[in-house]
Design a protein that fits this description.
The protein has about 725 residues and is an alpha+beta fold. It has 17 helices and 25 strands. Helix 5 runs antiparallel to helix 10.
């Protein structure tokens, strides 16, 4: 104990100091040793820092430190051998003893006790030793007794049980496999100078691990402590171990096909076992750390499966005792199931993200530019939800923009999200209007809520939302319907921005009494317009209302310059808007309208008379000649338009609209009428006149179909040019 006298014999510092004599093992340093004795014994204590339970049968060791109001050490009594290596000298900052990640929290605790006088008792805390190792203690913070000012910090180092308990508790707090491995390595550091965790590559990636794969195990370094500069060639987190090193470690921990701990006591033995200088450089952390204990992470079963290897390196002058090896094996055995649990969540996380990113838009086209961002709330699969965005070209030349938010998180939400997204795409491609698609999705969500439906058993998607927009590049109109979703934001070419006036509607799967027809909104989106579709995670903030969040999004999207790369702009919008503490998935779809050039489209409105096909052929032939289309394609398109117009005149009433669009490497022909009958291919006799026109259409086109409008239908057909 430092020789500074105590002004009060009843201060917390002195009370704890007097109690130390009952806990320090026989043969340890005296509680009242002066600073000179402490200096003389410092080297011997540093050589044996793990003798904390060597004598007297005691597992708890006490220490005490006094701090001033600046949190600097004024007095200390840390003479028990277990505290060897703690650089707690008078005048130094107590915060320097803390791991950097813990310093802010502990500092707040210390300041709180100073300001309020309320003690903080029994916090499990790690303290840094010299050389990079750590000591786990139970730390209590007490206000100093008057007339002193400052704090008294008592430390109880439990050499075994407390550390095992604290380590297992810390390791089990994350479902991220990297964080789990890092927590295990940090806990193992209490027994050595360097600790590493190497996992089977299949574990790291979340794949299944079986006993059959152990012969060709491939290890990847998942964690390494302490964090410092390492020599060239040494394996650090994220690196694969050399093949020879992986095989050696796998063979070493599976002697006689039984997983077991091995100890290599010195540098000479390490080099002899590893053989290759390259493997020595990859695995041995410097010259001082010569001995190593390799403990397999074993998943119990018949037969047991090795998930990886934990390695604890020490200097040769500190050989591993049997009791320490028992502790290491117990800790690794206790936490192996946490590693496997993280592996399972990694696999689920990978599957969910693969499904979600499979639905993200790939690219735009000649008539629209598209960018999207998906940002899950948390890195583990439990935080991956059912948000999705999708965009795809429809066969008739329009582009579909879809955004949805399925209730819940995890595989249940992701599976429902995938089903709804694919169903929406199929129905839109079949020509259904947005409101009709939402009606089908509403019915699907209601069916999935049945607990006996298998895939969705135990999960309810009622209340999910969806918004569908269809962009026509010729008319520059957007048709939109929404089921409970937040309104899209539209930025016009002149810079005006704001949410679209979409009437609120219940989400998908609402009760029958609440169901209403889905509204259809049509609005202009001239070239240069920017449309933003998003989910609520982007605009929700506890500090502001949802309307303010949407207005802020409109201002942020309006700041996107017309020349900005849209993908970079989307990321910038998300980084600006996303809350600091993200509680929900964030999804954004930006669509910049380009449209068709005026010279690439033509529209004619013809009366439903017998001369309509001939007039249509004349208009189309003249335009194709102007476009420079070759003769055979021009003849095919003229015949195609003639057949479609003939069908329209024959089976429908009202005027006929003919539209021709030059897009990419093809020509798109559209014929609209007021009829509600769907043209179909028939298998009639060769002499049967009915349906022969559609056979001609079928042979001349790469694809054709029908879409429905408020006044009738449009038959479209695509021809390669």
């Amino acid at each position: 104990m430092d020789s500074t006298s105590s002004p009060s014999s009843s201060s917390p510092f002195d009370l704890v100091s007097r109690a130390l004599g009952r806990y320090i093992p026989s043969g340890g340093a005296a509680a009242a040793a002066g600073p000179a004795d402490a200096r003389d014994d410092r080297a011997s204590r540093r050589r044996a820092p793990d003798e904390s339970a060597a004598g007297g049968g005691q597992d708890q060791i006490l220490g005490v430190v006094n701090l001033d109001r600046d949190l600097r050490i004024t007095r200390r009594n840390l003479d028990a051998p277990v505290f060897a290596g703690l650089d707690a000298v008078a005048g130094s900052s107590f915060v320097d003893l803390l791991p950097p990640r813990d310093a802010p929290t502990v500092t707040r605790r210390l300041r709180h006790v100073l300001e309020t006088g309320e003690a903080h008792v029994a916090r499990i805390q790690r303290l840094r030793r010299g050389g990079g190792s750590e000591l786990v203690v139970s730390m209590s913070i007490l206000p100093a007794a008057a007339p002193e000012e400052g704090l008294t910090v008592s430390l109880i180092a439990m050499a075994r049980r407390l550390h095992l308990y604290a380590a297992e508790t810390a390791i089990g707090t994350s479902l991220d496999i990297g964080e789990t491995a890092q927590s295990l390595a940090e806990s193992l550091l209490a027994w050595g100078d360097v600790a590493a965790v190497d996992l089977d590559f299949a574990v790291w990636t979340g794949e299944g691990v079986t006993e059959k794969a152990q012969g060709r195990i491939r290890l990847r370094r998942a964690a390494l402590v302490p964090d410092r500069a390492w020599p060239d060639g040494y394996v650090t987190p994220g690196d694969d171990l050399p093949g020879d090193a992986s095989r050696l470690l796998a063979q070493a921990v599976r002697r006689n096909d039984v997983p077991q701990t091995i100890v290599i006591p010195d540098r000479e033995a390490v080099e002899r076992v590893l053989g290759s200088p390259r493997v020595v450089r990859a695995l041995v952390p410097g010259d001082r750390s010569a001995g190593v204990a390799c403990i397999p992470l074993v998943l119990e079963g018949a037969p047991p499966v090795v998930l990886g290897v934990a390695e604890v390196w020490r200097r040769a002058d500190r050989p591993f005792r049997d009791s320490e090896l028992f502790d290491l094996q117990e800790l690794v055995a206790r936490t192996a199931h946490h590693v496997d649990l993280a592996r399972q969540h990694q696999r689920e996380h990978t599957q969910v993200l693969a499904l979600q990113r499979r639905l993200l838009p790939r690219a735009g086209g000649d008539t629209i530019d598209i960018a999207s961002v998906y940002q899950p709330a948390t890195p583990d699969s439990a935080g991956v939800g059912g948000d999705w965005v999708n965009s795809f070209p429809l066969p008739d030349g329009r582009t579909a923009l879809v955004v949805g938010d399925v209730v819940g998180h995890g595989l249940g939400a992701a599976a429902t999200m995938g089903q709804l997204s694919m169903e929406a795409r199929a129905l839109l491609s079949a020509g259904l209007a947005p409101d009709e698609v939402l009606e089908h999705l509403d019915e699907t969500v209601s069916l999935l809520d049945d607990a006996e439906s298998g895939l969705a058993a135990g999960y309810s998607a009622l209340g999910s939302t969806c918004c569908i927009a269809l962009y026509d590049p010729v008319s520059h109109h957007v048709v939109l319907s929404s089921a409970g979703h937040l309104p899209p934001v539209l930025v016009s070419p002149d810079g005006r921005a704001g949410p679209l006036a979409v009437r609120p509607h219940p989400g998908l799967g609402a009760e029958f009494a609440l169901r209403e027809p889905y509204d259809v909104h049509t609005f202009d989106a001239p070239p240069g317009s920017l449309l933003a579709l998003y989910t609520d995670g982007l605009v929700e903030d506890p500090a502001v209302s949802i309307d303010e969040g949407i207005d802020r999004l409109a201002e942020t999207v309006a700041a996107v310059h017309p020349w900005d790369a849209l993908q970079k702009a989307a990321r910038r919008v998300v980084s600006t808007m996303a809350p600091a503490r993200q509680r929900d998935d964030v999804t954004l779809l930006l669509a910049r309208m380009i449209g068709c050039r005026k010279g690439d489209t033509a529209t004619w409105r013809l009366p439903a008379r017998d001369d309509a096909p001939a007039r249509a052929r004349a208009h189309v032939s003249a335009l194709l000649r102007q476009w420079g289309i070759r003769d055979d394609t021009r003849d095919n398109v003229s015949l195609l338009v003639s057949e479609l117009v003939t069908n329209a005149v024959r089976f429908a009433a009202g005027p006929v609209t003919v539209r021709l669009i030059r897009a990419g490497h093809g020509l798109l022909c559209e014929v609209g009428d007021t009829g509600n009958g769907r043209p179909r291919l028939s298998r009639g006799d060769l002499l049967d006149d009915g349906g022969r026109g559609m056979h001609v259409v079928h042979r001349l086109t790469t694809r054709w179909g029908v879409r429905w409008t408020d006044t009738g239908k449009v038959v479209w057909a695509e021809v390669a040019r």
